[in-house]
Amino acid sequence: MSVLIVTSLGDIVVDLFTDKCPLTCKNFLKLCKIKYYHGCLFHTVQKDFTAQTGDPTGTGSGGDSVYKFLYGDQARFFGDEIHHDIKHSKTGTVAMASAGENLNASQFYFTLRDDLDYLDGKHTVFGEVAEGLETLTRINEAYVDEKSRPYKNIRIKHTHILDDPFDDPPQLSELIPGASPEGKPKDE
Questions:
Q1: Could you read off the pLDDT of 128-187 as tens digits, one per residue?
Q2: How far is CA 20 from CA 5, 33, 127, 159, 160, in A?
Q3: Which of 23, 30, 57, 168 could form an SS bridge with 66, CB 3.0 to 4.6 Å?
Q4: Is 82 domain-assigned?
């Protein structure tokens, strides 16, 4: 139940909490499988707070869940899976970035420091960084503008599923590209 995320600043391995957050983890894994995150910007990096990505528009206002692709527009968002025993207690916590209650889609963030407990109960925490904390350190050190957007683009280059406990829905195979999207980003 883990994914390797290859970024322009290094690799990150995320272990997923599939038992506690099956809907969220399935969404994340299947979006990885259809190469949805390839080329996504880290569009918001707030030093010693969070680094947010997962929006293919790069603006922080887009993104869809895999359930939309499988079941239509009414399934663009899915519900929270908040557990009070899973907290934003350490650097490398991975959680859904949502605009409100039960509005999860594709965007997610990594915490960039310990003890961000005021986020607990507001966002679904669905994983943690198992390897690659040094990559998060590099992301945290990025120079950003007044809107917390890095001056030099930081991107997800690829995602590789290391372990997926969920069966693929039959219609998912139609969404999987034969190769990575064309024009994949060069080192920026």
A1: 999 999 999 999 999 999 999 999 999 999 999 999 999 999 899 889 887 665 554 544
A2: 21, 21, 10, 22, 22
A3: 30
A4: yes
The answer to whether residues 139 and 42 touch, using CB atoms and an 8 Å cutoff, is yes
Is 170 domain-assigned? yes
List the CATH number of the domain containing 55: 2.40.100.10
Structure token digits, residue 186: 């060069």
Whether pTM > 0.85 for this model: the answer is yes
Structure tokens at 107: 């965007």
Contacts of 27 (CB under 8 A, 6+ apart): 65, 66, 67, 78, 104, 106
User: Residues 7, 13, 18, CA angle at the centre, nearest 5°?
Assistant: 125
Closest CA to 128 of 138, 116, 118: 116
The chain-wide mean pLDDT, for the chain, equals 94
